Amino acid sequence: SPLSPGWLPALQLVRRGSKAVTRHWKAMHFQRQKLMAVTEYLPPRPAVPPSCLPRAEETRQEDDGYARVLRRQVEEAFRENRMIAVCQYNSMPGEDVVMMKHYLRKHNIEVKFFLNEIVRPVLSQSKYKNLLPLFVGRNVLLVSRETKAKEMLRVLKGVPQINLLGACIDDTILSRKGVENFARLPPLEAAQGQTAGALALLPSQTSSLLQRGSVYLTALLDRHIQQLQAAETGSPAEPSPPQTSSE
C-alpha cells in the first residue's frame, strides 16, 4: 500500500563520493613488449647527410624606413660633434625638460633622444663600440660641436633627474670623473701660451749662462786697461762697478 504523506522511513541509504576504481595500471606483458619493439617504425636514413646539403637561403627582413632614418641621424650626431655625453634619463615634468634644453642651447649643446634599439647597432659597427655598456635603460645624448664640458656640468648640476654616465670628447672616451677633470683644465689658448712660455724660458736661461763667461771676461779686461792707463798718467783709477752674477 502507498505510504502516507506524514510517514518517513527510519533508515535511508544515500551514496556519496566518487565511484569505485575498477581499473589499475598493469605492466605490459613481456611478449607484447618484444612485439612492440620489433614492429617499431624506423625512418630510412637520407642518402646525403644533411650537413652536406646546401644551406637554404635565409630571408632577410627589410629594415623599416623610419629606423634607417634614425640610424642615419645617430651617425651624423657622432660624426659632426666633438662632444657626445651619454646620460641616464629619469622621468621629469615637461616644463623642466624645456628649461633644461633652453639652458643647454645657450651653450650650443643639443639634447637628443634615441632608442637603444637604434643606437646599439650603429655603435657596434663603429669606433665608439666601447660606449655600448652605457646604453642600458633610458638614455639621452647631449651633443655639441665644441667641448663645453664645464657649461654642461653646470647645467646638469641643477637637474638631478639627468645623471652623466660618460662622454666622448675629441674621439676620446671618458668616464664621469674624466669629464669632471677635463672641465677643470684651462682653455686651449691659455694652455698653448703656458707651454710656449715654458719652452721659451729654457733657451733664454741657456743663452744667459753661455754669455756669462764672455761678459765677465770683457769686464775684467776693461778694468785692467783702466788700471794701466791710470798708472801711465799717475791718476788714481776709478773704482769699477760691482759685477752681478746673472742667473
From TrEMBL:
Signal peptide range in chain numbering: none
InterPro entries given in the database record: Ribosomal_uL10, Ribosomal_uL10-like_sf, Ribosomal_uL10_bac_type
Major localization class: mitochondrion
UniProt-listed SUPFAM superfamilies: Ribosomal protein L10-like (SSF160369)
Subcellular location: Mitochondrion
NAD in keyword set: no
Entry keywords, A to Z: Mitochondrion, Ribonucleoprotein, Ribosomal protein, Transit peptide
Transmembrane segments: none
A Pfam family: Ribosomal_L10
Keyword Membrane: no
GO cellular component: mitochondrial inner membrane; mitochondrial large ribosomal subunit
Family named by the database record: Belongs to the universal ribosomal protein uL10 family.
Name of the molecule in the record: Large ribosomal subunit protein uL10m
